[in-house]
From TrEMBL:
UniProt xrefs under InterPro entries: Glyas_Bleomycin-R_OHBP_Dase, Glyas_Fos-R_dOase_dom, MMCE/EMCE_epimerase, VOC_core
Record field: compositional bias (Low complexity): 144-158
Keyword Metal-binding: yes
Alphabetic keyword roster: Metal-binding
Gene3D superfamilies named among the record's database cross-references: 2,3-Dihydroxybiphenyl 1,2-Dioxygenase, domain 1
The organism's place on the tree of life at top rank: Bacteria
Annotated region described as Disordered, given as residue ranges: 139-161
Protein name: VOC family protein
VOC domain sequence ranges: 19-131, 167-282
Length: 326
């Protein structure tokens, strides 16, 4: 049997971040956050960050702590985003940041203060650190359940179990100026444009192989987080997650549907603070050795091919009213 070539996990000669290492949110109630994210299917662990109690979010069976939630009064707020890079690119990134005078002090809630710190044009704190590549170098296969002849494929409702997301797929960030932010994330961090819809939204992937978008940027009056997206292995798992969240009392959502840009099937659930968390299945993958043909799309294609009507407040920014207090 012929062996397939190993996937390329680093594009030669390209200095770029390769993954979202983690992000940190402040939320007003850690107990409420634990209930929500455990119902969503994540593993929630108590920890400490910058001397304050926090919750770390993991996917089951994966060692990566994808996010940390720290309690603070007021609305949910994205505090900083940490991005992973290869050790061999450290020197090149250091020179790039020195030349552009982009260094900033570590965020006071940093999980660790190492690496390099800078701010995006909209003020979001970013950390660049050497870390393992956790963005996918190949497209993940779907989950499959073997079914014997004469048996039904669907499980009994009482034995359906709970969905367990595999990993963090991407973040959609609000920003006041999508074009300026896009120039920063591509020119400084080395991400690449996948697709966009005018100056309203842009989708960016990792040059070293990632999903169709690792980070997306949507226009709003202030910076912040619109949603985090978590990969599941099938449409069945996506629906199972949606049903589990409804049973847990989180009935406000959007889905089942399919996106145009990225092609993934989705179901969004509103979190307790007005933001969104997404189950995602079967997103387009962009390997490190492929140049994706980015295009400008019609505004309606930024949302979906099919699905239920878009909630009227889906693009409302829950942080915007108080974002000046960041």
């Amino acid at each position: 049997m012929a062996h397939l070539p190993e996937p390329v996990s680093k594009r030669p000669g390209v200095c770029a971040v390769h993954s979202i290492d983690h992000y940190t949110l402040t939320v007003p109630d850690l107990a409420q956050a634990r209930d929500f994210y455990e119902a969503f299917g994540l593993r929630v662990a108590c920890g400490e960050q910058a001397g304050r109690p926090c919750l770390d979010l993991y996917t089951h069976g994966h060692p990566q702590a994808w996010a940390s939630l720290v309690q603070a009064p007021g609305p949910q707020r994205l505090q900083y985003l940490s991005l992973g890079l290869f050790a061999e690119d450290e020197a090149a990134f250091a020179r790039r940041l020195d030349e552009r005078r982009l260094h900033a002090a570590p965020h006071p809630l940093a999980r660790d203060a190492g690496g390099w710190w800078l701010q995006a044009p909209d003020g979001l704190h970013l950390q660049l650190r050497v870390a393992d590549k956790v963005s996918p170098s190949v497209k993940a296969p779907p989950s499959r359940v073997a079914v014997a002849p004469g048996q039904g494929a669907a499980p009994a409702r009482s034995r359906a179990g709970r969905v367990r997301p595999r990993r963090l797929s991407h973040l959609l960030l609000f920003t006041p100026d999508v074009g300026r932010a896009r120039g920063f994330y591509t020119g400084v961090l080395g991400l690449r444009l996948s697709d966009h819809a005018g100056d309203g939204i842009a989708f960016l992937h990792g040059a070293h192989g990632s999903d169709h978008h690792l980070i997306a940027l949507a226009r709003s009056s202030a910076p912040g987080l619109h949603h985090s997206s978590w990969e599941v292995g099938s449409i069945h798992e996506l629906g199972l997650g949606a049903e589990g969240m409804r049973q847990a009392g989180h009935v406000d959502g959007w889905g089942l549907g399919r996106h145009v840009l990225g092609s993934n099937y989705f179901h969004y659930v509103r979190d307790p603070w007005g933001g969104w968390v997404e189950y995602s299945f079967d997103m387009d993958h962009i390997p490190a050795d492929l140049d994706w043909p980015a295009a400008d799309h019609a505004p309606e294609d930024a949302f979906y091919v099919w699905g239920p009507a878009l909630p009227p407040d889906f693009v409302t920014h829950p942080e915007a009213a108080t974002s000046t207090a960041r």
